[in-house]
């Protein structure tokens, strides 16, 4: 299924966010998260490329994307360089578990919609990471494993 909508603005990455503080983060150690460079890549076209690739394959419907847009979640992502793993990490926005009690959006009326939106945003984040890593990033990880690691 193809989602035929305009991409949201590229995320604006804050240099003051520590990805280790996310509940789902698996970032090791301190790092130069290279947010300025990643933000520039996203603004220079990586975000639009990722969005186009994602929209061509996503299961998110136009009605669900309207909810995402209304809530301003479309560009509320965080991306960072994980030097230890040599990868782009990300944190995707999502709808809360108590969406119904909080009356998050008047058109949001089922767990199926919530799951579709949350999964879709996660997939968009991963697609953006892949585009950044494959097509934009040309730096190497600076992390080197200690020489005294045991052989397994």
Automatic annotation (TrEMBL):
Top-rank taxon: Archaea
Q: Name one Pfam family in it.
A: DUF7992
Q: Tell me where in this chain the DUF7992 domain is found.
A: 2-152
- InterPro entries for this protein: DUF7992
Q: Where is this region: Disordered?
A: 1-29
Q: Where is the composition biased (Acidic residues)?
A: 20-29
Q: What is this protein called?
A: DUF7992 domain-containing protein
To which species is this protein native?
Halogeometricum salsisoli
Give the taxonomic lineage as stored in the record.
Archaea, Methanobacteriati, Methanobacteriota, Stenosarchaea group, Halobacteria
